[in-house]
């Protein structure tokens, strides 16, 4: 078991074979190349790319990231080189360099058309294994309400993406949904999603008291890191209970194998590591090793067998 989890790509989720269940979370490792000198992409299961939009985005003003006791707050503004450059340069490099590391392309947009254009523009590219739809962005045509918070818009978006690609589709949902995460996951799956990614960052504010201003340039930002762990776990558990067959990528606050195991027990089939990898680029491979060590310590021969086996107090 140990060798299997660590080495050969035999961790199967959504019809894809992963080397192990550990992924790099979207936006925290670019398109792989940006972290290539510090992080070994051949030691992890896969990478969710930085969000890809139709046109290049320059992102939010500085300061874009600030730390606090519970983790980090960021407003990057989904800066990225845009569909054409990602298709021509970034994804081909990733596939050629790491052919056995699965690639989930994270997609953003402000309209259903935007999502369709990005998914349609990349679906035939070798090395694109799946899409992850970031539905925490505002639907401009519907007055700026987030897609994920509006079941009608969410249904339209997922249906359109499903009609555009045959690849697995994961819908990434926000912790702001609370118990509503179950309904959003259900709508997503009913309209063609393969699985869900739980959770995105949580909106927050951190203040610079000397300047009496928000610490980050945009004002509000997304909270990530340790403060998210209980929120991501609860979202994962809720969706697993309601939709036990639906693959879940669980993330939020994972910085150790033990925390990744918590997500597997709550029902995740894959786990993502974001903030911990920004702090320590070796964290994802260490977490993959710690999963194996946990399994050995607890005499678990197949880590798949623990997924969703959290026992609820009666
Ligand atoms: C700097 C930064 C950039 C991010 N960019 C994206 C993004 O482009 N698309 C997305 O869906 N999530 C993005 N996220 C959210 C992460 O993928 C992840 O859901 C969140 O940070 C929780 O995981 P963590 O606590 O391990 O960081 C970003 C997070 C951070 C910290």
Characterize the biggest β-sheet.
Answer: 8 strands, parallel, barrel
CATH H level, superfamily name:
Aldolase class I
Bound small molecules, by name, code or SMILES, are: flavin mononucleotide
Number of strands: 16
Q: Which consecutive residue ranges, at least 5 long each, have pLDDT under 50?
A: 1-7
CATH architecture: Alpha-Beta Barrel
The CATH class designation is Alpha Beta
Measured by DSSP, the beta-strand proportion falls in 15-25%
Mean pLDDT: 95
General description of the model:
An eight-stranded parallel β-barrel has the order 3-4-7-8-9-10-15-16, surrounded by six helices. Strands 5-6-14-11 form a four-stranded antiparallel sheet, with no helix packed on it. With 314 residues, it is of the alpha/beta class. The radius of gyration is 18 Å and the shape is globular. Helix 7 (257-266) crosses helix 9. It starts with a helix and ends in a 17-residue tail after the last helix. Helix 5 (181-190) links the parallel strand 9 and strand 10. It has one domain: Aldolase class I (TIM Barrel). The longest helix is centred in the first third of the chain and has 15 residues, at 83-97. The chain has nine helices and 16 strands. Bound molecules: flavin mononucleotide (FMN). Flavin mononucleotide binds next to strand 6 and helix 8.
């Amino acid at each position: 078991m140990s060798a299997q989890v660590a080495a050969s790509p035999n961790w199967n989720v959504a019809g894809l074979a992963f080397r192990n269940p550990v992924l790099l979370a979207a936006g925290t490792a670019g398109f792989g190349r940006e972290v290539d000198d510090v992080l070994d992409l051949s030691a992890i299961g896969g990478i969710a790319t930085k969000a890809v939009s139709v046109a290049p985005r320059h992102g939010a003003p500085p300061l874009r990231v600030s730390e606090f006791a519970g983790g980090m707050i960021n407003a990057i503004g989904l800066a990225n080189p845009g569909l054409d450059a990602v298709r021509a340069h970034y994804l081909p490099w990733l596939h050629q360099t790491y052919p056995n590391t699965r690639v989930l392309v994270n997609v953003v947009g402000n309209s259903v058309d935007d999502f369709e254009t990005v998914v349609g523009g990349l679906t035939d590219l070798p090395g694109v294994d799946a899409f992850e739809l970031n539905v925490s962005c505002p639907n401009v045509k519907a007055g700026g309400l987030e897609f994920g918070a509006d079941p009608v818009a969410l249904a339209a978006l997922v249906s359109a993406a499903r009609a555009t690609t045959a690849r697995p589709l994961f819908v990434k949902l926000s912790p702001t949904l609370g118990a509503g995460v179950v309904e959003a996951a259900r709508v997503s799956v009913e309209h063609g999603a393969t699985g869900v990614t739980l959770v995105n960052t949580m909106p927050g504010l951190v203040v610079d008291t000397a300047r009496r201003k928000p610490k980050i340039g945009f004002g509000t930002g997304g909270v990530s890191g340790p403060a998210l762990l209980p929120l991501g776990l609860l979202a994962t558990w809720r969706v697993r209970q309601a939709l036990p067959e639906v693959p879940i990528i669980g993330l939020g606050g994972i910085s150790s194998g033990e925390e990744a195991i918590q997500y597997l027990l709550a029902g995740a089939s894959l786990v993502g590591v974001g903030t911990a990898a920004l702090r320590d680029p070796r964290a994802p491979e260490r977490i993959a090793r710690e999963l194996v060590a946990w399994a050995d310590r607890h005499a678990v021969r197949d880590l798949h067998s623990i997924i969703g086996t959290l026992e609820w107090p009666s």
